[in-house]
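user: Kindly work through both lines:
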Amino acid sequence: MKTIFERSGASWEVLINCDGKYINQLSRHTDRTYSHVSKMVKSFVEDGLVSIHTAPTNKRAKVITLTSKGKQIKDKLQEIKTIMGGT
């Protein structure tokens, strides 16, 4: 498991925005390549921050869902962003 200091700002942006999205939606939203986002999501799965489920309407598509641990981290990251003056 990577510590908070071993992850890039880009990976935290992906975590904050991933809940309920497909990897291709997330890559467009964060302006990252599909491959890059896919690797980040895989590391989040390994760390227990997200889970991946098959989309009900498309068996090839995967939906990303935050775990309770992932939601806790997302909430803390949003608090930090607010304190730092972000939106």
Notes: The helical segments are 9-17, 23-30, 34-46, 68-83. The chain has one domain: 4-83. Residues 24 and 34 are 6 Å apart (CA to CA). The first helix runs from residue 9 to 17.
